[in-house]
Amino acid sequence: MKVIGRARYGDEPEAAVQFATLMGHFGQVTNVVSFLFSLFGFSFVMHSFGIKRVLRLFPALLLLAALGSTFVQGNLWILFGAIATLKAMTYSMNEPAKELMYVPTTDAIKFKAKTWIDVLGMRAMKAMGSAITHTGRNDPALLVRYGSVPTILISLALLGISVLIGKQFEDLMSSGEVVGHEDRSSDEDERSHEVNEGVLLELDLIEKVAAPQQLRKDNG
């Protein structure tokens, strides 16, 4: 959208002001929609459709936006609405739904998964998007025509993954199984048991020492 916006306003002296105004409105729309959906929409959508279907909404919206930008090439305001909606849904729906996926996992599994997703996966996708945008920066029409192809492919892959993950999440929640719990070794269980016994012995010792003192205080 930024490349198309810059190309639309041209190189006139007031172009920078117009582009800055456009991006300002973009931020306002994104944040207002995200705030309103977080406040009123997320709970309703979650209770109405369930987590399994909510996970599919964002990749479905992403796929529709990519197809729409392909058929309606160069329309700045359609891109404006589509990207603002996607960003708002990312913050107010997709991210909260994604965080719920960590409920049936141990802290160790959550830490490892978030490291791969938030650091490696997210940065890799942003780097790929920046490379595509940089390649087509001088030809917005070419960027829209061919830049949508990776987005469509990623949307289809993400939609398929969300279907599988949603089903696995419901199975785990219904069975009560915790991912990563079975990876704890017997040595870890034994050490944990020893620590718990040590704590109980210390508490018992404290009670035995404190009991005569409390008794003398009461009698005095």
Secondary structure layout plus pairing:
Blueprint: H1 2-9, H2 15-71, H3 76-100, H4 107-135, H5 140-175, H6 186-219
Helix pairs in contact: 1-2, 2-3, 2-5
Question: Descriptors for this entry?
Answer:
disordered C terminus, 86% helix, 6 helices, mainly alpha
In short:
By secondary structure, the chain is mostly helical. It contains six helices and no strands. The relative contact order is 0.10.
How would you describe this structure to a colleague?
- The protein is mainly alpha-helical.
- The chain folds into two domains: 182 residues, Growth Hormone, Chain: A, CATH 1.20.1250; 33 residues.
- The protein is 86% helix and 0% strand.
- The protein is built from six helices and no strands.
- The protein is elongated.
- The termini are far apart.
Mind summarizing the main beta sheet? none
Q: Round the Cα radius of gyration to an integer and report it.
A: 27 Å
Total number of helical segments? 6
- CATH C-level category of the largest domain: Mainly Alpha
Question: What's the total count of β strands?
Answer: 0
How many domain modules? 2
Architecture per CATH nomenclature, i.e. the level-2 architecture of the largest domain: Up-down Bundle
Range of strand content: under 5%
Proportion of residues in helical segments:
over 70%
Low-confidence stretches: 185-189, 191-196, 209-220
Could you spell the SSE succession in H and E letters? HHHHHH
Q: Under CATH, the topology of the largest domain is which?
A: Growth Hormone, Chain: A
What overall form do the CA principal axes indicate?
Answer: elongated
What structural category arises from helix and sheet content?
A: mainly alpha
Characterize the quaternary organization of these chains: single chain
> Could you report the average pLDDT, rounded to the nearest whole number?
76
- Measured between the Cα atoms of the first and last residue, the distance is 82 Å
